[in-house]
Here is the input.
Amino acid sequence: MLFTQSISDESRAKLYSYAYALMLITIYYNIVEGLISVIFGYEDGTLSLLGFGIDSFVEVISGIGIWHFLKRIKQKGEETRDDFEKTALKVTGTAFYFLSAGLAATAIYNVVTNHKPETTFWGIVISIISILAMQLLIMYKMKVGKALNSQAIIADAKCTKTCLYLSIILLLASLGYELTNIGGIDSIGAVLIAYLSYKEGKESFEKARTNKLCSCEDE
Here is the structure.
């Protein structure tokens, strides 16, 4: 079996290779998802999809920091952050704060001007794909983390749930608009995405300051 409790050095090396691969998949997936979401969000005037896409780009910065973190854990076995990782967390946190402020302000403007998206069809498609992708990533990250007994990898898997929640919000907002044609539903979805982005920004600064692996450690 691949995932076992007692593993040899060779198996451990393979598991870390899987962990790297999963992290790289996460990074490249977010890049592609971000590009597609921003393009369709802008063209269709869908604020929730646009915000979702920008959030994906911010996740790429976070993913690079985590990839560096995993690489160093394998080499030194220390699950503490270095200066590069702390800087990546601070940059990520700042970007999330700017995103949440921009989304909230634009959502208010859209409500005041009674803005309506042309369609939220692509929001439905992208969110469903993202939900499936995030569930798979969470599952395999948890398996690898438990097999290596790595709290860092397990924490990353748990933190990936935030991306899953964002996808669910996008799906509900997109479906809601398609069914009702009420423009405010798209704005509500954007505000909820802004709220989760704010929380992610706050958690990024907290992790940089306290060396906590994930806010989920308090759960």
